[in-house]
Amino acid sequence: MTKTQRVLSGVQPTGALHLGNWLGAIRNWVELQQTHETFVCVVDLHAITVKHDPKVLSKNTLNTAALYIACGMDPHKSSIFIQSQISAHSELCWLLNCLTPLNWMERMIQFKEKSLKQGDNVSIGLLDYPVLMAADILLYDADLVPVGEDQKQHLELARDIAHQRINARFSLDGNPILKVPKPLILKDGAKVMSLSDGLNKMSKSDPNTNSRITLLDTPEVVSKKIKRAKTDSHIGLQFDNKNRPEANNLLTLYSILSGKDRESVAKECAEMGWGKFKPLLTEATISSLQPIQSKYVELMKDPTELEKILSKGRKEAEVVAESTLRRVKSALGIKLRN
Ligand code: AQP
Description:
By secondary structure, this protein is mostly helical.
Protein backbone atom coordinates (compact mmCIF):
# COMPACT_ATOMS: atom_id res chain seq x y z
CA MET A 1 0.00 0.00 0.00
CA THR A 2 1.36 3.46 -0.86
CA LYS A 3 1.37 5.72 2.15
CA THR A 4 0.44 9.16 0.86
CA GLN A 5 -0.01 11.10 4.08
CA ARG A 6 2.75 11.88 6.53
CA VAL A 7 2.39 12.04 10.31
CA LEU A 8 4.81 13.52 12.86
CA SER A 9 4.68 13.17 16.63
CA GLY A 10 6.85 12.91 19.73
CA VAL A 11 7.02 12.75 23.52
CA GLN A 12 9.33 14.72 25.80
CA PRO A 13 11.74 12.61 27.86
CA THR A 14 10.81 14.50 31.01
CA GLY A 15 10.27 11.33 33.03
CA ALA A 16 9.06 7.76 32.90
CA LEU A 17 6.34 7.28 30.29
CA HIS A 18 2.94 6.54 31.80
CA LEU A 19 -0.43 5.12 30.80
CA GLY A 20 -1.49 8.55 29.47
CA ASN A 21 1.47 8.78 27.07
CA TRP A 22 0.79 5.26 25.86
CA LEU A 23 -3.00 5.31 25.56
CA GLY A 24 -3.27 8.95 24.46
CA ALA A 25 -0.34 9.03 22.04
CA ILE A 26 1.91 6.02 21.31
CA ARG A 27 -0.92 3.50 20.94
CA ASN A 28 -2.34 5.67 18.17
CA TRP A 29 0.99 5.98 16.36
CA VAL A 30 1.20 2.18 16.28
CA GLU A 31 -2.05 2.13 14.29
CA LEU A 32 -1.11 5.10 12.12
CA GLN A 33 2.19 3.57 10.99
CA GLN A 34 0.21 0.89 9.10
CA THR A 35 -1.41 3.45 6.82
CA HIS A 36 0.71 6.62 7.07
CA GLU A 37 4.33 7.55 6.60
CA THR A 38 5.22 8.03 10.25
CA PHE A 39 8.03 10.03 11.86
CA VAL A 40 8.27 9.87 15.65
CA CYS A 41 10.94 11.50 17.72
CA VAL A 42 12.00 11.82 21.32
CA VAL A 43 11.78 15.58 21.77
CA ASP A 44 14.69 16.08 24.14
CA LEU A 45 15.16 19.76 23.24
CA HIS A 46 11.69 20.39 24.61
CA ALA A 47 12.58 18.60 27.84
CA ILE A 48 15.19 21.24 28.73
CA THR A 49 12.67 24.09 28.69
CA VAL A 50 12.07 23.21 32.34
CA LYS A 51 14.65 22.40 35.01
CA HIS A 52 16.40 19.11 34.27
CA ASP A 53 19.19 16.83 35.43
CA PRO A 54 21.59 16.06 32.53
CA LYS A 55 22.25 12.45 33.57
CA VAL A 56 18.56 11.72 33.95
CA LEU A 57 17.77 13.38 30.61
CA SER A 58 20.17 11.26 28.60
CA LYS A 59 18.92 8.09 30.29
CA ASN A 60 15.28 9.06 29.75
CA THR A 61 15.94 9.86 26.10
CA LEU A 62 17.06 6.29 25.36
CA ASN A 63 14.40 4.74 27.61
CA THR A 64 11.71 6.71 25.81
CA ALA A 65 12.92 5.56 22.38
CA ALA A 66 13.04 1.96 23.62
CA LEU A 67 9.51 2.26 24.98
CA TYR A 68 8.21 3.53 21.62
CA ILE A 69 9.46 0.26 20.13
CA ALA A 70 8.32 -1.85 23.07
CA CYS A 71 4.81 -0.40 22.61
CA GLY A 72 4.77 -1.50 18.97
CA MET A 73 6.50 1.17 16.90
CA ASP A 74 8.19 -0.73 14.10
CA PRO A 75 11.48 0.69 12.78
CA HIS A 76 10.71 -0.89 9.39
CA LYS A 77 7.43 1.01 9.14
CA SER A 78 8.36 4.28 10.88
CA SER A 79 11.32 6.58 11.31
CA ILE A 80 12.19 6.71 15.01
CA PHE A 81 14.79 9.29 16.05
CA ILE A 82 16.06 11.74 18.64
CA GLN A 83 15.14 15.35 17.90
CA SER A 84 18.44 16.94 19.01
CA GLN A 85 20.44 14.70 16.68
CA ILE A 86 19.04 16.62 13.73
CA SER A 87 20.34 20.17 13.94
CA ALA A 88 17.73 21.39 11.45
CA HIS A 89 15.19 21.50 14.32
CA SER A 90 17.13 24.22 16.14
CA GLU A 91 18.02 26.02 12.93
CA LEU A 92 14.47 26.19 11.63
CA CYS A 93 13.32 27.23 15.08
CA TRP A 94 15.62 30.28 14.93
CA LEU A 95 14.36 31.26 11.47
CA LEU A 96 10.74 30.94 12.63
CA ASN A 97 11.51 32.85 15.85
CA CYS A 98 12.53 35.85 13.80
CA LEU A 99 9.18 35.83 12.01
CA THR A 100 6.81 35.04 14.88
CA PRO A 101 5.26 37.95 16.77
CA LEU A 102 5.94 37.91 20.49
CA ASN A 103 2.29 38.53 21.31
CA TRP A 104 1.30 35.24 19.61
CA MET A 105 3.54 33.45 22.12
CA GLU A 106 2.27 35.26 25.18
CA ARG A 107 -1.22 33.90 24.45
CA MET A 108 -0.16 30.25 24.77
CA ILE A 109 -2.09 28.62 27.60
CA GLN A 110 0.53 25.95 28.31
CA PHE A 111 3.18 28.66 28.71
CA LYS A 112 0.97 30.51 31.18
CA GLU A 113 0.36 27.33 33.17
CA LYS A 114 3.93 26.00 33.13
CA SER A 115 5.51 29.40 33.81
CA LEU A 116 3.41 29.76 36.97
CA LYS A 117 5.09 26.58 38.29
CA GLN A 118 8.60 27.91 37.49
CA GLY A 119 8.47 31.03 39.66
CA ASP A 120 11.37 33.36 38.77
CA ASN A 121 13.05 30.74 36.65
CA VAL A 122 11.00 30.95 33.48
CA SER A 123 13.36 30.49 30.54
CA ILE A 124 13.03 31.98 27.08
CA GLY A 125 13.02 28.35 25.96
CA LEU A 126 9.72 27.74 27.75
CA LEU A 127 8.16 30.70 25.94
CA ASP A 128 9.66 29.47 22.68
CA TYR A 129 8.52 25.85 23.12
CA PRO A 130 5.64 26.19 20.59
CA VAL A 131 7.95 27.63 17.90
CA LEU A 132 10.32 24.68 18.33
CA MET A 133 7.28 22.43 18.06
CA ALA A 134 6.26 24.25 14.88
CA ALA A 135 9.77 23.64 13.51
CA ASP A 136 9.52 19.92 14.40
CA ILE A 137 6.28 19.59 12.47
CA LEU A 138 7.02 21.85 9.51
CA LEU A 139 10.44 20.30 8.82
CA TYR A 140 8.79 17.02 7.85
CA ASP A 141 6.05 18.48 5.63
CA ALA A 142 3.66 16.65 7.93
CA ASP A 143 0.11 16.40 6.60
CA LEU A 144 -1.28 15.37 9.95
CA VAL A 145 -0.30 15.81 13.57
CA PRO A 146 -2.11 13.73 16.21
CA VAL A 147 -3.01 16.18 18.96
CA GLY A 148 -4.85 16.05 22.22
CA GLU A 149 -6.96 18.96 23.46
CA ASP A 150 -3.95 20.53 25.24
CA GLN A 151 -1.81 20.71 22.10
CA LYS A 152 -4.44 22.12 19.72
CA GLN A 153 -3.36 25.71 20.32
CA HIS A 154 0.26 24.85 19.51
CA LEU A 155 -0.70 23.20 16.26
CA GLU A 156 -2.79 26.24 15.35
CA LEU A 157 0.32 28.35 15.91
CA ALA A 158 2.38 26.08 13.63
CA ARG A 159 -0.29 26.49 10.94
CA ASP A 160 -0.33 30.28 11.33
CA ILE A 161 3.45 30.52 11.16
CA ALA A 162 3.60 28.35 8.02
CA HIS A 163 0.73 30.05 6.26
CA GLN A 164 0.87 33.71 7.33
CA ARG A 165 4.51 34.25 8.16
CA ILE A 166 6.30 32.06 5.62
CA ASN A 167 4.11 31.13 2.65
CA ALA A 168 2.15 34.39 2.37
CA ARG A 169 5.23 36.57 2.77
CA PHE A 170 7.98 34.73 0.99
CA SER A 171 6.48 32.58 -1.75
CA LEU A 172 7.31 34.20 -5.07
CA ASP A 173 5.29 31.92 -7.32
CA GLY A 174 2.24 31.27 -5.14
CA ASN A 175 3.41 27.74 -4.32
CA PRO A 176 3.67 27.09 -0.59
CA ILE A 177 7.16 26.90 0.89
CA LEU A 178 5.93 24.95 3.90
CA LYS A 179 3.09 22.48 4.09
CA VAL A 180 0.32 23.66 6.43
CA PRO A 181 -0.41 20.65 8.69
CA LYS A 182 -3.83 19.56 9.89
CA PRO A 183 -4.68 18.27 13.34
CA LEU A 184 -5.55 14.62 13.56
CA ILE A 185 -8.19 14.33 16.23
CA LEU A 186 -8.48 10.68 17.06
CA LYS A 187 -11.88 9.33 17.94
CA ASP A 188 -10.31 6.95 20.42
CA GLY A 189 -7.98 9.60 21.85
CA ALA A 190 -8.08 8.73 25.52
CA LYS A 191 -7.27 11.41 28.05
CA VAL A 192 -5.99 9.63 31.13
CA MET A 193 -6.43 11.49 34.38
CA SER A 194 -4.28 11.46 37.50
CA LEU A 195 -4.93 8.65 39.99
CA SER A 196 -4.93 11.17 42.80
CA ASP A 197 -7.23 13.75 41.16
CA GLY A 198 -9.68 12.82 38.43
CA LEU A 199 -9.80 16.42 37.22
CA ASN A 200 -6.10 16.69 36.35
CA LYS A 201 -4.35 14.77 33.60
CA MET A 202 -1.84 12.05 34.43
CA SER A 203 1.55 13.68 33.99
CA LYS A 204 5.24 12.68 34.03
CA SER A 205 6.22 15.69 36.06
CA ASP A 206 3.57 15.49 38.80
CA PRO A 207 5.64 15.41 42.04
CA ASN A 208 3.26 12.76 43.41
CA THR A 209 4.48 9.47 41.90
CA ASN A 210 1.29 7.72 43.04
CA SER A 211 -0.66 9.89 40.60
CA ARG A 212 0.56 7.87 37.60
CA ILE A 213 1.24 4.31 36.53
CA THR A 214 4.39 4.16 34.48
CA LEU A 215 4.89 1.63 31.71
CA LEU A 216 7.73 0.03 33.67
CA ASP A 217 6.00 -0.21 37.05
CA THR A 218 6.23 -3.72 38.53
CA PRO A 219 3.00 -5.63 39.29
CA GLU A 220 3.49 -4.85 43.00
CA VAL A 221 3.81 -1.12 42.33
CA VAL A 222 0.79 -1.13 39.98
CA SER A 223 -1.24 -2.89 42.65
CA LYS A 224 -0.14 -0.44 45.36
CA LYS A 225 -0.90 2.62 43.22
CA ILE A 226 -4.35 1.38 42.24
CA LYS A 227 -5.14 0.56 45.88
CA ARG A 228 -4.25 4.15 46.76
CA ALA A 229 -6.07 5.72 43.81
CA LYS A 230 -8.64 8.31 44.81
CA THR A 231 -12.24 7.08 44.74
CA ASP A 232 -15.59 8.34 46.04
CA SER A 233 -18.16 7.05 48.49
CA HIS A 234 -20.80 5.87 45.96
CA ILE A 235 -21.62 2.24 45.37
CA GLY A 236 -21.95 1.28 41.73
CA LEU A 237 -19.57 2.73 39.15
CA GLN A 238 -20.58 4.99 36.27
CA PHE A 239 -19.01 6.62 33.24
CA ASP A 240 -19.61 10.28 32.41
CA ASN A 241 -20.96 11.49 35.75
CA LYS A 242 -19.54 15.01 36.10
CA ASN A 243 -19.51 14.66 39.86
CA ARG A 244 -17.51 11.42 39.72
CA PRO A 245 -14.38 12.16 37.66
CA GLU A 246 -12.38 9.37 39.33
CA ALA A 247 -15.02 6.76 38.51
CA ASN A 248 -15.05 7.88 34.88
CA ASN A 249 -11.26 7.77 34.65
CA LEU A 250 -10.79 4.36 36.27
CA LEU A 251 -13.65 2.80 34.30
CA THR A 252 -12.25 4.22 31.06
CA LEU A 253 -8.87 2.75 31.89
CA TYR A 254 -10.47 -0.59 32.68
CA SER A 255 -12.40 -0.57 29.41
CA ILE A 256 -9.31 0.18 27.30
CA LEU A 257 -6.93 -2.13 29.15
CA SER A 258 -9.31 -5.08 29.34
CA GLY A 259 -10.38 -4.63 25.71
CA LYS A 260 -14.07 -4.60 26.76
CA ASP A 261 -16.35 -1.94 25.26
CA ARG A 262 -17.85 0.78 27.42
CA GLU A 263 -21.36 -0.70 27.40
CA SER A 264 -20.23 -4.04 28.76
CA VAL A 265 -17.99 -2.37 31.35
CA ALA A 266 -20.88 -0.10 32.42
CA LYS A 267 -23.08 -3.18 32.88
CA GLU A 268 -20.39 -5.24 34.62
CA CYS A 269 -19.60 -2.48 37.14
CA ALA A 270 -23.05 -0.91 37.61
CA GLU A 271 -23.55 -2.50 41.03
CA MET A 272 -19.91 -2.93 41.96
CA GLY A 273 -18.09 -1.30 44.87
CA TRP A 274 -14.50 -0.06 44.67
CA GLY A 275 -13.23 -3.02 46.71
CA LYS A 276 -14.30 -5.42 44.00
CA PHE A 277 -13.43 -3.17 41.05
CA LYS A 278 -9.85 -2.26 41.93
CA PRO A 279 -8.46 -5.84 41.71
CA LEU A 280 -10.04 -6.14 38.23
CA LEU A 281 -8.38 -2.93 37.08
CA THR A 282 -5.09 -4.04 38.64
CA GLU A 283 -5.20 -7.35 36.79
CA ALA A 284 -6.05 -5.70 33.45
CA THR A 285 -3.25 -3.15 33.89
CA ILE A 286 -0.61 -5.70 34.82
CA SER A 287 -1.41 -7.97 31.90
CA SER A 288 -1.46 -5.08 29.39
CA LEU A 289 1.92 -3.85 30.56
CA GLN A 290 3.53 -7.27 30.65
CA PRO A 291 4.32 -7.59 26.88
CA ILE A 292 5.63 -4.00 26.77
CA GLN A 293 7.93 -4.67 29.71
CA SER A 294 9.30 -7.93 28.26
CA LYS A 295 10.04 -6.29 24.93
CA TYR A 296 11.65 -3.34 26.72
CA VAL A 297 13.95 -5.62 28.75
CA GLU A 298 14.96 -7.43 25.57
CA LEU A 299 15.76 -4.13 23.80
CA MET A 300 17.78 -2.75 26.68
CA LYS A 301 19.92 -5.91 26.74
CA ASP A 302 21.24 -4.99 23.32
CA PRO A 303 22.04 -1.24 23.25
CA THR A 304 23.82 -1.58 19.89
CA GLU A 305 20.61 -2.72 18.23
CA LEU A 306 18.74 0.25 19.69
CA GLU A 307 21.49 2.62 18.51
CA LYS A 308 21.20 1.09 15.02
CA ILE A 309 17.44 1.68 14.93
CA LEU A 310 17.90 5.30 16.03
CA SER A 311 20.66 5.86 13.54
CA LYS A 312 18.49 4.50 10.71
CA GLY A 313 15.64 6.77 11.83
CA ARG A 314 17.96 9.76 12.06
CA LYS A 315 19.24 9.23 8.51
CA GLU A 316 15.72 8.92 7.11
CA ALA A 317 14.53 11.99 9.00
CA GLU A 318 17.59 14.07 8.19
CA VAL A 319 17.09 13.83 4.42
CA VAL A 320 13.59 15.29 4.71
CA ALA A 321 14.50 17.87 7.36
CA GLU A 322 17.57 19.18 5.51
CA SER A 323 15.64 19.58 2.28
CA THR A 324 12.90 21.63 4.00
CA LEU A 325 15.45 23.75 5.80
CA ARG A 326 17.21 24.59 2.53
CA ARG A 327 13.87 25.54 0.97
CA VAL A 328 13.09 27.94 3.84
CA LYS A 329 16.60 29.40 3.95
CA SER A 330 16.57 29.97 0.26
CA ALA A 331 13.16 31.70 0.41
CA LEU A 332 14.41 33.94 3.22
CA GLY A 333 17.52 34.95 1.30
CA ILE A 334 19.98 33.07 3.50
CA LYS A 335 23.00 32.16 1.39
CA LEU A 336 23.22 28.37 1.07
CA ARG A 337 26.45 26.39 1.24
CA ASN A 338 27.24 24.71 -2.08
N1 AQP B 1 -2.68 12.04 30.70
C1 AQP B 1 -2.63 11.93 29.39
N2 AQP B 1 -3.64 11.36 28.71
C2 AQP B 1 -3.57 11.24 27.35
N3 AQP B 1 -2.53 11.63 26.62
C3 AQP B 1 -1.49 12.19 27.26
N4 AQP B 1 -0.30 12.68 26.83
C4 AQP B 1 0.41 13.13 27.89
N5 AQP B 1 -0.29 12.96 29.02
C5 AQP B 1 -1.48 12.37 28.67
C6 AQP B 1 0.10 12.69 25.44
O1 AQP B 1 1.44 12.20 25.36
C7 AQP B 1 2.11 12.91 24.32
C8 AQP B 1 3.42 13.42 24.79
O2 AQP B 1 3.33 14.36 25.75
P1 AQP B 1 4.60 15.26 26.10
O3 AQP B 1 5.63 14.46 26.75
O4 AQP B 1 5.06 16.01 24.91
O5 AQP B 1 4.08 16.32 27.07
P2 AQP B 1 2.85 16.36 27.99
O6 AQP B 1 1.58 16.29 27.20
O7 AQP B 1 3.04 17.59 28.80
O8 AQP B 1 3.02 15.03 28.83
P3 AQP B 1 3.22 14.86 30.37
O9 AQP B 1 3.32 13.41 30.65
O10 AQP B 1 2.21 15.64 31.11
O11 AQP B 1 4.67 15.48 30.58
P4 AQP B 1 5.16 16.68 31.48
O12 AQP B 1 4.76 16.31 32.86
O13 AQP B 1 6.63 16.68 31.27
O14 AQP B 1 4.51 17.93 31.00
C9 AQP B 1 1.18 13.99 23.81
O15 AQP B 1 0.60 13.52 22.60
C10 AQP B 1 0.16 14.11 24.89
O16 AQP B 1 -1.10 14.53 24.39
